Structures are given as C-alpha cells and as structure tokens.
C-alpha cells in the first residue's frame, strides 16, 4: 500500500505547491485590498502561456537549455509587471469599499476579457515545454522513482511561504502592508501611501499566480480553460485556510492534496469532488476558514 | 400600470418577431430560459446577496428533465412542473444552510455546492453520462409527438406564456411584505430583527423562489437544446447568470429578460464577424456597472430602476 501511497502523495504535494502559489496570491490580495479577485485564475493561465512560449523560444533559438529555468520566473515577473499596476489602477481601484457583489462582478468582467485576450494572443492550441523537468531527471529512493522537478516545486513553495512571512514581519514594505491590513484609515492618517501599497500588493498577487502557472507548465503543459479550473481550486484552498491567512493557504493546499490522494486510492471517481467537499464541510463548520481568529462579524 | 402595458407590448413584439422569423424561435426561447434563471439571481441580488453557484439549480432543472425523460415521462408540461419541483426542493435544502451566511461567505458556499454538483455530474459516468452529458428526447404535448418545427414553435409560445405568468407572480412577490423585506435586508438587517421580522425566513423564501426559477429555466433549456451537460453547473455559468441580471437591471421583473434577449441577439450577430465574444461581453458588463448602474431596464423606467449592486 505504501508503495502506491507515497508516490501519490509526492505527486499530490507537488500539485499542492502549484495551487499554493495561486491561492496565496489570492489571499494576499484579499487581505490587503479587501477585494475577492475572480480574475485571479486568468493570471495563472497567462503566466503559464507566457512561460511555455518563452521556454519554447529559448529551445528553438538554440540557447543553453538551463536558461529555461530563469525563463519560468522571468515570464511570471513579466506578466506581473504588465498586468499588475495597469489592472489595479484602471479597474480594481474603483471598487474599494464597495459591496462584495460589485467587486465580484467587476472582476468577473475582467475574467471574461482576459480569457479572450489570451486566446487571441496565444491561440487555442495546447503548449508543452518540459525542458526543465527533463534536465532535472529523477531520483530513486527506496525503490520508488521521484521526479526531481516535483521535489523542486515543493521546496520552492516552502521557500515562498517562509519568504512571505519574513517579508511581512521583517521588512519595511511588509510592515507597511501589515499596517494597512490592520487599519486602513489610521495608516493613511499616519502618512502611508495606501494606494501605492494596494498596487504593490496586487502586483505581488499577480506575480504569485503567474509564477504558479509558469512552474506548472513543465509538468502539465497549458491549454485553454485552465484559468477557470484553477480559479475555483484556488478559491477552495483560500477559503479552507481562511481568506487572508498566508499559512492557512499552505495548510489548506496540503489538506486538499491529501484528500485527493485518499480519494484516488479509495474512490477514484471522487477525485475531482474532494477539494470542493472539503471546502463545503469546512465552510459549514467554520465559515471564516480553519485559520481565522478574528471574531468580529458584520451582523 | 404603464410598466405592465409596456411589458405586454414587449411580449407581443417578441412573439411577432419569433413567429415571423422562425430561426429566431430557438434563440429567443433559450434567452428566455436563461432569463428565468437570471431573474432568480436578481431576487437574491435585491437582498444584496451574490451567488456564484446559482447555475447549479439551472443544471438540476435540466438534469431532472433529462432523467425524467429517460424514465418514460415525456409530456412537456409535466416535465416542466416536475423539474421545477425538484429544483425547488433542492433550493429549500441548500437554502436552509445558505441563509446563515452573507457577502463573500454566501458567494463562496454557493460556489462550493455548485462545484461539488459539477464534479459529480462529470465523474459519475454510469449515472449522468459524464462529460458527454445526456440526450433529452423531444417532449410530447398531451400524447402528441410534434415535428421539429412545430415543437420549436410550441416551446417558444409556451415560454412566452410562462414569462407572463412568472412576471405577474414575481412582481406580486416583490410588492408583498415578504418581497419588500428583501431590500430591507440589504439596507439594514438588524432593524428587521428589531421589528420581529425573521430575516432567515425572508431569505429562505427568496432563495427557494430563485432556485425554482433557475430550475424552470434549466428544464426549458434542456428541452430546447435536447442535451444536458455538466458545464451547465460550472461556476462561469453562474457568473453569466449574474451578468445577465445586472446587464438587464434588477429594478423590475423585465430586467433579466431584457438582458438575456439583448445578450443572445448581440451574441448571434457578433459571432458572424468576431470570435472575441467574451471580451465584448466583459467590456459591456464593466460599462454597465460603472455608467448604467440600474442596467438596461433603468433606461426604460427611470423612476423604479434601482441600483443593481
């Protein structure tokens, strides 16, 4: 049984790492801007398309193959630089402090526009670019073969989690973000440029989503419709962990991954249902997520 | 009274358009089916609640029709009524849990339930046909099996009658104390509790009616298209229902239908020269939100427009 379960778990954890990148971006944007960004999944798929295209270009241009690794991060940074400030300034900014219904609608409109935009720019074909995964090869531990790239994904996710926590607690920028999250008005009164913080946080969120997409391409490739699928998964993970909780997103990603492993092992047809069942149960018992400690309710 | 006459006139115009140009019948019936579901979403929007999962009741209505047809019930009217009843029952059960939540939590819980339904519909291949969906055999009318064209005409005319009946019923509901309380929930929920109006009761009734309308629309859609798919329950479909409701405006009963017919017509004409259809719709949605907060309906009825969100 372990011979089956361990590889499955590593597989699931690598998936969890990808979803963590997207969900933590979503949760970060929500906690700073108080906007639930329905278009967040689109940044994931745009990042994936950008990374696959850039990787394919690197390979076809005859450049050294190891360049495909920086290409992954570079394309995510590129997507964030193009979309982050622009979208925040032009669209999201007008919804601050408005009702949730309005915010969801505005970002849904953005989702529709971005879905078509990537179809026009990248076409409707699936792209595969697995050079990074091939280069890393695999390791044999205890008679089981692991893909090194998957182990790298898990390590990167852990690094990102630690990095984000350190950034918020130890850097000037992080402390400013924490202040704005804690009290927007007082921060403004103290002279913090909240608009700049919002833009930075949004751009960081876009970067994390795009990075998730970019890192996923070597294992899964990219095809149309990816954004919408990822969106709901990221929603589920962010909601389970408690919207706005960074470590919550990490734990929730692992819980969802393990739930899927169990589902695949015991009831394969329930595989796709598992994340949403967990989300449903958690939200019914603890509507604010597993990690939410704030007890204030609106009513 | 003026709005009533306007609505009747609009119905007559749609009927004449459909009868004189039969190729429009399929399109208009489908628009009306979606309009019914969007009207359900509009009811919840009145109370300030946004559901990113309401397509589940649309799908429940559609799949109920498919299952009933497969099990030998083929009468058109019986199918409509039974499917709506099934969706209503689902609405009561799901709603009983939902009405405890507000804002984002309401939206996300609806999303969770609808995604569970979507995944089950696409995975339980032996029961639901998986991602292939299920075929829906053409319904009969009181034991008579019509040809394709007659069928489309009858469905179209029935949908108009249903819109009229639903329109009367829902506008009566909006004017009733129970319906007016929906807006009050949006404005100030605590005051309602103070004057001893049970908010959860108000919302449960609203939720159930909205589920019933979505189910009715779904049942229509299943029979018009002749096929049901799991995608009917996917979250983007729920997003589209909200879009239709907001585009048309939630100030009155006519709003969602205006939105649905407008969208369906634009879709058909836009499809002939561009495939960036989502982009147009998304931009239109943003335009309506920022510049026409009471929707297309607000253009006609300035007095009772009512802001969408």
Automatic annotation (TrEMBL), chain A:
**Per the similarity annotation, which family is this?**
Belongs to the binding-protein-dependent transport system permease family. LivHM subfamily.
Provide the protein name: Branched-chain amino acid ABC transporter permease
Location relative to the cell: Cell membrane
What organism is recorded for this protein?
A: Nitratireductor aestuarii
Q: Write out the transmembrane intervals.
A: 12-36, 43-63, 69-92, 104-124, 144-168, 197-216, 273-291
Q: Which GO terms describe its molecular function?
A: transmembrane transporter activity
Keyword RNA-binding among record annotations: no
Q: Which UniProt keywords apply?
A: Amino-acid transport, Cell membrane, Membrane, Transmembrane, Transmembrane helix, Transport
Matching entries from PANTHER family are given as: ABC TRANSPORTER ATP-BINDING PROTEIN (PTHR11795:SF442), BRANCHED-CHAIN AMINO ACID TRANSPORT SYSTEM PERMEASE PROTEIN LIVH (PTHR11795)
Lineage: superkingdom: Bacteria
Q: How does it sit in the membrane?
A: Multi-pass membrane protein
Which Gene Ontology BP terms does the record give?
Answer: amino acid transport
Q: List the record's Gene Ontology CC terms alphabetically.
A: plasma membrane
TrEMBL record, chain B:
Transmembrane annotation, as ranges: 43-64, 76-98, 104-125, 153-174, 204-229, 241-265, 277-300
Q: Per the database entry, which stretches of residues form a coiled coil?
A: none
Places the protein is found: Cell membrane
Name the CDD domains on file: TM_PBP1_LivM_like (cd06581)
InterPro entries linked: ABC_transp_permease, LivM-like
Name the keywords, alphabetized. Cell membrane, Membrane, Transmembrane, Transmembrane helix
Q: Where is the major localization of this protein?
A: membrane
Naming one, the record's GO cellular component terms include: plasma membrane
Single annotated GO MF:
branched-chain amino acid transmembrane transporter activity
Q: What is the protein's given name?
A: Branched-chain amino acid ABC transporter permease
The organism encoding this protein is Nitratireductor aestuarii
């Amino acid at each position: 049984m372990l011979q089956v379960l361990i590889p499955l778990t590593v597989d699931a954890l690598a998936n969890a790492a990808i979803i963590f990148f997207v969900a933590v971006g979503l949760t970060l944007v929500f906690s700073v801007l108080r906007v639930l960004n329905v278009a967040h999944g689109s940044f994931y798929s745009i990042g994936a398309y950008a990374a696959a295209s850039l990787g394919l270009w690197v390979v076809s241009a005859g450049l050294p193959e190891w360049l495909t690794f920086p290409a992954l991060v570079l394309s995510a940074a590129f997507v964030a630089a193009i979309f982050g400030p622009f979208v925040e300034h032009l669209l999201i900014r007008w919804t601050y402090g408005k009702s949730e219904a309005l915010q969801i609608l505005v970002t849904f409109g953005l989702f529709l526009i971005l879905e078509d935009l990537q179809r026009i720019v990248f076409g409707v074909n699936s792209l595969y670019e697995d050079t990074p995964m091939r280069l890393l090869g695999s390791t044999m531990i205890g008679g089981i073969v692991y893909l090194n790239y998957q182990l790298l994904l898990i390590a990167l996710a852990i690094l990102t989690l630690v990095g984000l926590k350190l950034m918020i607690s130890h850097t000037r920028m992080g402390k400013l973000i924490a202040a704005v999250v804690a009290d927007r008005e007082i921060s403004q009164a103290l002279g913090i440029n909240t608009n700049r913080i919002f833009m930075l946080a949004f751009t960081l969120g876009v970067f994390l989503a795009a990075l998730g997409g970019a890192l996923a391409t070597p294992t899964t490739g990219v095809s149309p419709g990816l954004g919408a699928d990822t969106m709901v998964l990221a929603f589920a993970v962010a909601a389970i962990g408690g919207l706005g909780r960074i470590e919550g997103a990490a734990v929730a990603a692992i819980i969802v991954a393990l739930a899927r492993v169990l589902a695949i092992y015991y009831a394969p047809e329930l595989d796709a249902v598992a994340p949403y069942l967990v989300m449903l149960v958690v939200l019914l018992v603890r509507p604010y997520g597993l990690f939410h400690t704030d007890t204030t309710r609106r009513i | 009274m003026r709005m009533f006459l306007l609505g009747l006139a609009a119905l007559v115009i749609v009927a004449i358009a459909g009868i004189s140009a039969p190729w429009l019948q399929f399109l208009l019936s489908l628009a009306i089916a979606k309009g019914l579901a969007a009207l359900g979403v509009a009811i919840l929007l009145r109370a300030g609640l946004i559901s990113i999962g309401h397509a589940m009741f649309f799908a429940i209505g559609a799949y109920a029709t498919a299952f009933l047809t497969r099990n030998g019930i083929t009468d058109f009217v019986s199918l409509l009524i039974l499917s709506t009843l099934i969706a209503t029952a689902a609405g009561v059960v799901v709603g009983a849990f939902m009405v405890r939540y507000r804002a984002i939590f309401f939206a996300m819980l609806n999303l969770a339930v609808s995604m569970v339904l979507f995944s089950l519909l696409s995975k339980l291949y032996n029961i639901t046909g998986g991602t292939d969906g299920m075929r829906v055999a053409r319904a009969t009318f009181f034991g008579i099996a019509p040809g394709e064209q007659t069928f489309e005409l009858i469905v179209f005319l029935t949908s108009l009658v249903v819109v009229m009946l639903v329109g009367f019923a829902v506008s009566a509901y909006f004017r009733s104390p129970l319906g007016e309380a929906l807006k009050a929930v949006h404005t100030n929920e605590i005051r309602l509790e103070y004057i001893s109006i049970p908010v959860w009761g108000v919302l449960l009734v609203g939720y159930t009616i909205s589920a019933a309308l979505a189910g009715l629309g779904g049942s229509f859609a299943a029979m018009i298209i002749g096929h049901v798919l799991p995608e009917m329950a996917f979250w983007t479909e729920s997003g589209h229902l909200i879009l239709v409701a907001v585009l048309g405006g939630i100030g009155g009963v006519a709003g969602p239908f205006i939105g649905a017919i407008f969208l369906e017509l634009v879709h058909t004409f836009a499809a002939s020269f561009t495939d960036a259809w989502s982009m147009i719709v998304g931009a239109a949605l943003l335009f309506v939100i920022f510049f026409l907060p009471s929707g297309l309906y607000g253009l006609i009825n300035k007095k009772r427009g009512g802001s969408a969100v």
